[in-house]
Amino acid sequence: MLEKYSGNNRTQIEEYLDRILESSPEDLVYGTGAWYEPSRFETGNTFFGPYVHRGDKKGDRVLTYEWTTQEYNFHQQGWYLAGVQAAGKPAFTEPYLDAGTVYMTMALSFRDRKDGTMRGVISVDMILPQLQELIESVNRNSTDVIYMVGKSGKILAYPQAEQFLKNQQAISPAANYKGMLDIPEVAGLSAISQPLIYSTQMEENDWKIVVASPEDVILASYRSTKSLIYICLLAYLLAAALTFGIVYYFTEKVRALEAKSIEAIRHEKNQLAAIVDNVSFGLLRADSNGEVQDGFSKSCAALLGRDPNAIRRASVWDLLGMSARDRENYQAFFQSNFRATFPG
Predict the structure, then answer these.
(1) What is the mean pLDDT of residues 183-200?
(2) Side-chain half-sphere of 31: how many Cα atoms within 13 Å?
(3) Are 275 and 138 in contact (CB under 8 A)?
(4) Which of 202, 166, 257 is nearest to 90 (CA)?
């Protein structure tokens, strides 16, 4: 909507932002703003950046220009520069703590449709407590410790976070940890003796998911089996025939343990896949008629506010809730992509 609009009516831009915030989940999105390059909205106006955020009461939304000042100079803020440098792709800031709640900002640049030059950056401030709830759920009834680390190397979410923070404050009082976001990644391993580490990095925001498993638990069956095999080898010196039978028996047991270990690894990978699916963006694909195909990500249901069965086979323009005119233009543009011949 911001790219399509080329006028200088402040009220219209404010209504755009209010509609965006109104249509987003209250427990996920706190506020959104449109931050224009100098004089790109109004000639001679250097700082124009309306911001709409949640009010104190449920359903309230508040419009503010509190950051549109020479002192704040939003054009030089890290989140704004990240949005500019991403060149049309979403850029994510490191999570930050404000008034007891963890937030993360997504910044996305938008352009002038006439000449292609950048007009500014739109920001969306997201609320992240649900990330901690997800970590808690995957750690229940597990001997492993699964947690998340941000791009800066500090912990974003950790099982039993309050107790973990208290323990780290007691272990390292000089570090003066104020909250979870102050604790480095290496501290997450302190709760496990001789951990075996598996980690994977998310390309979208450089977050890392770490699975730390206690070595003694993982290798207990292996060590027990190894001891039994040694006993069998000693028995071979006394009775070759008897040893052959015992070795065969324990060989089969080792194979069963190996299969069980492989299944356990698959289970851990499935847990990691579940975490990524819950914090990633909605992804769907549609055919030339605009009908959504099977295989869309779970987050689409929450983002679109629809039941998964209502999304399947529905047209993209129906799901986006467009006006009749916008729907006609979008449908024509969408279907032209299937007919266009792309240069080699």
Answers:
(1) 74
(2) 18
(3) yes
(4) 202
Which pairs count as long-range contacts for 280-287, CB under 8 Å and 24+ apart, including other chains? 280/202, 280/204, 281/90, 281/204, 284/311, 286/315, 286/316, 286/334
**Could you list the residue range(s) of the whole structural domain that residue 158 is in?**
131-214
Q: Which residue has the tokens 């900002």?
A: 105
Ranked by mean pLDDT, the top range of 29-33, 182-186, 289-293, 338-342 is 29-33
Q: Are residues 91 and 23 in the same domain?
A: yes
Same domain, 163 and 112: no
CA 242 to CA 232: how far, in whole Å? 9
* pTM (predicted TM-score): 0.49
DSSP string, 155-189: EEE-TTHHHHHHHHHHH-GGG---SGGGSBGGGGG
- Verify that 191 and 159 share a domain, yes or no: yes
Distance in angstroms (rounded) separating the CA atoms of residues 136 and 213: 16
User: Which of 127, 190, 126 minimizes the C-alpha distance to 158?
Assistant: 190
Q: Is residue 106 within a helix (H) or strand (E), and if so which, with residue range?
A: strand 101-111
| Residue 142 CB neighbour total at 10 angstroms | 14
Q: Residue 145 half-sphere exposure, CB side, CA atoms within 13 Å?
A: 24
Question: Number of structural domains, the chain?
Answer: 2
Asked if the model's pLDDT at residue 218 lies above 90, the reply is no
Of 214, 236, 262, the position where a domain reaches its end is: 214
pLDDT score of 130 more than 80: no
The pLDDT, as a whole number, for residue 108 is: 92
Domain boundary among 81, 103, 127: 127
- What is the C-alpha end-to-end distance of the chain, expressed in Å? 32
pLDDT at 33 over 90: yes
Distance CA 41, CA 13 (A): 10
| Long-range CB contacts (within 8 A, 24+) of 311-315 | 311/284, 315/286, 315/289, 315/290, 315/291
Token readout for 177 is: 């940890």
Least confident of 114-128, 244-258, 274-288: 274-288
Burial group, residue 247, by CB count within 10 angstroms (0-12, 13-18, 19+): middle
